[in-house]
TrEMBL record:
Keyword RNA-binding: no
Cofactor(s) the protein needs: pyridoxal 5'-phosphate
Stored Gene3D superfamilies: Aspartate Aminotransferase, domain 1, Type I PLP-dependent aspartate aminotransferase-like (Major domain)
A GO molecular function held by the record: pyridoxal phosphate binding
One family name in Pfam for this protein: Pyridoxal_deC
Protein name (record): Aminotransferase class V-fold PLP-dependent enzyme
Keyword hit for Transferase: yes
Entries under PANTHER family matching the protein: CYSTEINE SULFINIC ACID DECARBOXYLASE, GLUTAMATE DECARBOXYLASE-RELATED
């Protein structure tokens, strides 16, 4: 309906869009030539931009870009692919952040493998929705094979299953949903007098380590438990969950009449790349009868590592596991999965609708994935991993991940030997947390100098690094996921950081001398 007329008004002859022209944009047997040309035009633009990206970022500010984006009239189409791609270049591609660049060292974003990009192009054109068989056919079976394959790599056993999700946050949320429902069932089943649901929910607690991911707190909020339901136990010097503290926290909850519904162990903490002691945590959980969820959003790449799979020992004892293929399997966003030891627990995500997934269809043995998912319409993201495995194979992916883990170990040694810097816990994966603090540095400016260095580096676009806090102090962080990054890149970026930080510290000290205040 137009803003100034009713839908029933007949448009004057000759006015309004041409219905036939509008239909020319639909992908169908008549338009495959346009489809090919259009997509190739886009691919060519990306290829040209990637080929000339000499920095990971241009350093553009939100203030500079916002007017360009705001100035575009979305109601007035350009009507032309080339013009739209030119405009896209101006508002996005020119200043995008390039994860493939060897000096992108910031967050858990990987360069992507070409077989997965092929998968992305194919899956969005076919547009299967992996919710029901009648919207996906083979795609449902392929996703199931990849779930089986992942479950096999983890070692969850013959009763296991899982589902692809949009990311680690969603995987963790669904894991907590399943744990909540299983725990609720157990508590109600074991009670002499049936407690109310509200009473049970108010007593549920989730335990993770102080280095766990914030999506656990978010999940607790979304599940009606509140972020306070998440208890964090301290980590040891290596930033791994302290098992003695975990056991103590579980005992304390029991004494207080609280019910621990899940322990979330992290296999690859986002900041420190450390892996909680999974076998010991599994022992504690088994003894207490508590659901063990392993958040391997980052560490899942070890599942295919030719040399380091043992770092995940104990993961096979989990009740549920999060993996993010879009972090350490070099897949484009989104690609993630939740795996569970006992397929039956996925029923907590099931609801039957007559129009979609009637119980009748399930009884007939028609496979569907919607009964296992908290989404309905869902992308066939599994296609990307499928083509990756079929073209490259798992060892090649594992080798890429191994290379960045080796690089991080080398970067840690460099930083440890460099008097300008201090390094935090040694990563088992591919992060390095450090800060600029040269001998004799004025402690009052160290935090600010590190913050400044990160911002100045980003504004120059020469390299991107992340920042975090360790015990209240500002640190910098490399997350290394690009096997093309070299030791020389790391050395050069450290020099840039030291340059920016020392300039800041010197300027501040000079200002303090010129104008002393208290
Ligand atoms: C990244 C990350 C998540 C969240 O995953 P998304 O895919 O970003 O939603 C969860 N846990 C850990 C440990 C992570 O590193």
């Amino acid at each position: 309906m137009s803003p100034n007329g009713s839908a029933l008004d007949t448009p004057p002859a000759g006015a309004g869009p041409d219905p036939i022209a509008a239909r020319a944009h639909l992908l169908n047997a008549d338009s495959v030539g346009t489809y090919r040309r259009t997509v190739i035009e886009g691919v060519d633009r990306v290829a040209a931009r990637v080929a000339t990206a000499d920095r990971p970022f241009t350093g553009v500010s939100p203030e500079a870009l916002a007017p360009l984006v705001a100035g575009i009239d979305l109601d007035r189409p350009l009507g032309d692919t080339a013009a739209a791609l030119d405009e896209l270049h101006d508002v996005w591609l020119r200043d995008a952040v390039w994860f493939h660049h060897p000096r992108y060292l910031a967050h858990l974003n990987c360069p992507v493998v070409i077989p997965a990009l092929l998968g992305e192009a194919v899956l969005s054109a076919v547009n299967s929705s992996v919710d029901t068989w009648d919207q996906s056919a083979g795609a449902t079976l392929m996703e199931r094979r990849l779930v089986e394959w992942t479950v096999g790599r983890i070692g969850l056993g013959p009763g296991a299953d899982g589902i692809f999700t949009s990311g680690g946050t969603q995987s963790n949320l669904q894991a907590m949903l399943l744990a909540r429902e299983e725990t609720h069932r157990r508590v109600v089943g074991g009670a002499a007098e049936r407690p109310s649901r509200a009473d049970v929910l108010s007593r549920l607690r989730i335990i993770t380590s102080a280095a766990g991911h914030f999506s656990v707190q978010k999940a607790a909020k979304l599940l009606g438990l509140g972020a306070e339901a998440v208890l964090t136990v301290p980590t040891d010097a290596g930033r791994r969950m302290r098992t003695d503290e975990l056991a103590r926290t579980i005992a304390r909850c029991r004494d207080e009449g609280l019910v621990v519904m899940a322990v979330v162990a992290t296999a690859g903490t986002t900041d420190f790349g450390t892996i909680d002691p999974l076998p010991q945590i599994a022992d504690v959980c088994a003894a207490a009868g508590v659901w063990l969820h392993v958040d391997a959003a980052y560490g899942c790449g070890l599942l295919v590592s030719p040399t380091r799979r043992h770092l995940l020992d104990g993961i096979e004892r989990a009740d549920s596991v999060t993996v993010d293929y879009h972090k350490s399997f070099f897949q484009p966003v989104s690609s993630s999965a939740l795996l569970v030891r006992d397929a039956r627990v996925l029923r907590h995500a099931t609801w039957h609708a007559d129009y979609l997934n009637p119980a009748r269809a399930v009884e007939k043995g028609i496979p569907n994935q919607v009964d296992k998912s908290i989404q309905t319409t869902r992308r066939f993201d599994a296609c990307k991993l499928w083509l990756t495995l079929r073209i490259m194979g798992p060892d090649a992916i594992g080798s890429l991940f191994d290379q960045v883990v080796d690089l991080a170990a080398e970067a840690w040694r460099m930083l440890d030997a460099d008097p300008r810097f201090e390094v935090a816990a040694r990563s088992q994966l591919s992060t390095v947390v450090f800060r600029y603090v040269p001998p004799g540095a004025d402690p009052s400016v160290v935090d600010e100098a590190n913050l400044h260095a990160r911002e100045a580096l980003s504004a120059s676009g020469a390299a991107l690094v992340a920042g975090t806090k360790v015990d209240g102090a500002h640190y910098l962080k490399f997350t290394l996921l690009n096997p093309e990054t070299t030791v020389d890149d790391i050395a050069a970026v450290l020099d840039l950081i030291a340059g920016h930080a020392s300039w800041y510290a010197d300027t501040r000290s000079a200002a303090a001398l010129a104008c002393p205040v208290g």
